[in-house]
Amino acid sequence: MDRHEVAQELAKPLSLELLGSSIPARLAYVGTDDAPRVIPIAFQWTGEHVVMGTVPTSAKVRALRQRPRVAITIDTQDQWPPRVLLIRGAAHLEQVDGVPDAYVEAARKVTPADQFEDWERGTRALYDRMTLITVEPDWAKLLDFETTLPKAVADLVQARQP
Predict the structure, then answer these.
(1) What separation in angstroms does the CA of 47 have from each of 7, 8, 115, 135?
(2) Which pTM was predicted?
(3) Which helix (H) or strand (E) holds 95?
């Protein structure tokens, strides 16, 4: 998939809705023990990158240094039909001082408004440094289960049509 195709997929209204939603992303990567991992994580979409923050000593940071390829899923909850945005890319890691704005903005989407001020104060007091995980998508697919389906399902539907 070339950059233009990726950009087109991510610019669709439903993709932008999912990227701006309060739904945590599911970040999939391969651990240092070669076992697959998937974790929910708050994220910020910059218009070009998915940005997440974490503890510099976390298992995912160690794993991503060895194998930076990741998959990200952002999907609706309690909605039918489901809406799913699938993204693949390589993670770039950057250790930064303090708590970066991208991490705060990502957390703002998932933290209840009445608890955010306390959360932010506690977080800024806790972290001296953080690692930003930045993913530039090199593949993306939006599934709305009305006009787009997983390829295997679409192939099956096509094969069953007279």
Answers:
(1) 9, 12, 27, 11
(2) 0.91
(3) strand 84-97
